[in-house]
Design brief:
Shape: flat
Number of strands: 0
Mean pLDDT: 92
Structural class: mainly alpha
Order of helices and strands: HH
Radius of gyration: 10 Å
Number of helices: 2
Largest sheet: none
């Protein structure tokens, strides 16, 4: 599950940089991928 670990790392970076809770970090990542037409795998 390497891709799952990478997604979790990205969420961790968002949480650290934006000082939000993990649920908000996941939402930020999801919304960004929707706008850039990228897939979370």
């Amino acid at each position: 599950m390497t891709s799952h670990a990478v997604v979790d790392q990205a969420i961790g970076m968002i949480v650290a940089m934006a000082q939000v809770i993990p649920e908000e970090g996941r939402t930020v990542l999801w919304e960004d991928t929707q706008h850039t037409n990228l897939k979370l795998r």
